[in-house]
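Comment on the following before class.
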Amino acid sequence: MPHGFSFRVWTSNGITPGFYGKTELEREKWYHVAETYDGRNVEMYVVGEPESKKGALGAGGKD
């Protein structure tokens, strides 16, 4: 995943599939990155914008 990044969440049931971001991050620049997990769905935000709106998907193919 060139210039990309991913997140996983550790839960009491193990680790979630990877969630791969689509925003291209610039070197030497700070970003606020956050992730939510509701027990079923993972969402990642970069500077407050949800990555799923940019086509980012979890490894299982679901937003």
In short: The chain has one domain: 6-54. Residues 6-54 form one domain. The two ends are 18 Å apart (CA to CA). DSSP finds no helices and seven strands in the chain.
